[in-house]
Specification:
The chain is of the alpha/beta class. It has nine helices and nine strands.
Amino acid sequence: MSKDSKRLPLASIRLDGGTQARVHLNQDAVDEYAEILGLEDGPGLPPVDVFFDGSDYWMADGFTRYFAQQKRGEQYLDAIIHTGTQRDAILFAMGANASHGQRRTNDDKRKAVETLLNDAEWSKWSNREIARRVGVSDIFVGNVRSKLTANACSETPAERKFTSKHGTESTMDTANIGKTKPKIPGGINFDPSEWPSGEETNEAEVDIPAVHSGPMDDSKIKLLTKPFAQASTALNNVYNEFASAVNEEPLLSAYLGENRLQELDVKIGNVKNFMSYHKPEMVCGKCKGTGCSSCEQTGYLPRHKKASHVSEK
């Protein structure tokens, strides 16, 4: 893709090609750039980047500089001219401000990622490739892709292209992404067939003293379940805050990567499954909440014993 530099009339540059990567034009920046351009011995500003397809000049990078020139009443501006199509200009624009210009907001980054994910061709790229093009972390891309998939899962491409560690291009079948096994609320995938049956064992029964005052009832069980719900919410918050911090820090994102965060999510999910497995579910039917060997003198049955209790009825 060749490129050249020259002065172009403002009127010859098209701004309607979907190449604006920012959510909003920063008018304060336009005013500041206009002042810089007006300085007689000022540093000036770098040329804008446009793509020429043989007919039209498509703005790719330099919207703020364009409007700063327009504000000053100028008719021309310096431009680096790339030979390419409107699509080339869009792709260039989505990562243009990753390393220079005004700092991008999270909304700007999200818009750039969504532009690629909403494209029939670019959406087949891996998270890592899109992240490289836009100048964000692959975790950030993964989060945006997940939200888009949740909103319109029927539009998810059946294949996604990615480059392996050996440099070869491959495709991945994504048809089953989003199809999950039965899931415990707040936990990770967990197959109910793998739950312990709760059947009586041959081990000697242990005489466990009662740990509550008065018969167990539904109101007491409701109180006992509160710490489990609070802990589950706290675990979710810890993960979300940590993942968000990683997304915003390129060094952390580069080291941890998407796989390590998924590993953390699985481990947190295991903890939540453990709590869900042992959470009080119902008053023991054998002792009516007074305490017996079946409920280990607690008066209630946790989830894994509830299933066997119901089957015995």
